Amino acid sequence: MNIDKEEIARTLLNACAVTLRPTKPFIYASGIKSPIYTDNRVLISSVSDRKKIISAFCEVIRSNWMPDVIAGVATAGIPWAAWVSAELNLPMIFVRASAKDHGKNNQIEGTLFKGNKVVVIEDLVSSGGSTLGVVQAIRDSGATVDGCVAIFTYGLKKSVDTFKSAKVELITLTDLKILLDVALQDNSLDKKQAKMVLEWAEDPEMWGAK
Question: Most CB atoms within 10 A, among 5, 149, 193, 199?
Answer without folding.
Answer: 149
